[in-house]
Design a protein that fits this description.
2 domains; six-stranded antiparallel sheet; 34% helix; seven-stranded mixed sheet; Beta-Lactamase; Rossmann fold
Length: 346
């Protein structure tokens, strides 16, 4: 058993082993999450609190360390030349530091290569409105949004502004001017960054996460005024997503929000990642709700409980339920039927 010499060593191993995450916690050896499974790194000693602090000092700046000491946690992105980019979450627990490092694929993968439905490309080509990509943590929301932004960048000319916490994928200027702003570094919050973005002549705005009432309200207003707004929520299913947005507002404002949301919603894409049968990685199962007249009426009339049925009967428009997406993966022998049942809607 040997000690870890540097954080760079661990990052290289994580990338080589196609891990999605690297975890450092006192009393345990370095741990990888590979295709959803927790895997301790063999041959390494358990890390002690001074070990973890020493490893992190190589990637945490003085300013970030100050934030960590004051708030107890800090999130940031980090790039290692020749290796990759990483999203880091460092936090205090039981008097020591722990961290979770998400490995970001430096290459932006196209929608087809991700195995997403063709309708996702059509959604990305919308001129305005609100598009939401939802799902639990680690379900590939950022990857899907990056692919949508890249499609717009390749096919259109315009101005794209992204607000991220932290910046994950780095986009190059192609057909579009792309300005990427990081919350905490380039702007104070999603809400303030979104207000500023509206004064910067954007065609497309990506909001990394709609965390609060102000951000949600401003995003809806931006979509109303002729911008395409892409964002995420940590919700499962289209109906739950619509309810979450409306419930974020005071009761006296909810009917007005229903009307506004019904007028701007273009799509809700809910996804989860399921281990492939052959052990080669994860497969995306995707529910797609489109802003058809029927769906808009359900939102406006507070009948979101009818949305799942509308999705099920709306296949001719390109909609699909999560269960239908999972069934297709099973039929194609991509995922195991027993595993598939764990991911179906209740």
């Amino acid at each position: 058993m040997r000690a870890v010499e540097s954080i760079y060593e661990l990052l290289e191993i994580a990338v080589d082993q196609r891990a999605s995450d690297l975890h450092l916690s006192a009393g345990l050896p370095p741990i990888l999450r590979i295709f959803g499974k927790i895997t301790p790194l063999t041959g390494y000693k358990a890390l002690m609190p001074p070990d973890i602090r020493g490893l992190l000092e190589a990637v945490v700046s003085e300013e970030q360390m100050d934030t960590l000491e004051r708030k107890g946690e800090v999130d940031f992105s980090y790039g290692l030349r020749g290796v990759g980019r990483f999203r880091c979450s460092v936090y205090q627990q039981r008097g020591s530091l722990s961290c979770a490092i998400r490995i970001i694929n430096s290459k932006i993968i196209g929608l087809n290569e991700l195995g997403l439905p063709e309708i996702i490309a059509d959604i990305a080509r919308k001129k305005d409105g609100l598009v939401l990509v939802t799902g639990p943590t680690g379900s590939g929301k950022s990857t899907t949004l990056a692919a949508m932004i890249e499609l717009i960048n390749q096919e259109q000319q315009g101005v794209i502004i992204t607000l991220e916490d932290p910046i994950e994928y780095l986009h190059q200027h192609r057909g579009c001017i792309i300005n990427q702003r990081e919350v905490g570094t380039d702007t104070l919050s999603f809400a303030s960054g979104l207000r500023a973005a509206l004064r910067a002549d954007p065609d497309v705005i990506l909001v990394g996460e709609m965390r609060d009432l102000e951000t949600i309200g401003t995003a809806i207003s931006a979509a109303e005024t002729g911008h395409l707004v892409l964002s995420t929520l940590h919700t499962r299913g289209a109906a739950n997503t619509i309810d979450r947005i409306i419930d974020a507002f005071p009761a006296e404002s909810q009917q007005q929000i229903r009307i506004q949301l019904a007028s701007v919603i273009q799509a809700v894409v809910s996804q989860q990642l399921i281990p492939r049968k052959d052990g080669s990685g994860m497969a995306a199962a995707v529910e797609v709700m489109l802003g058809t007249p029927a769906i808009r009426n359900m939102i406006r009339d507070s009948k979101t409980h009818q949305i799942p049925s509308a999705i099920e009967t709306g296949t001719r428009f390109g909609m699909q339920t999560m269960d239908a997406a999972i069934d297709e993966l099973v039929q194609r022998n991509v995922i195991d039927p027993a595993v598939a049942n764990m991911y179906r809607s209740l």
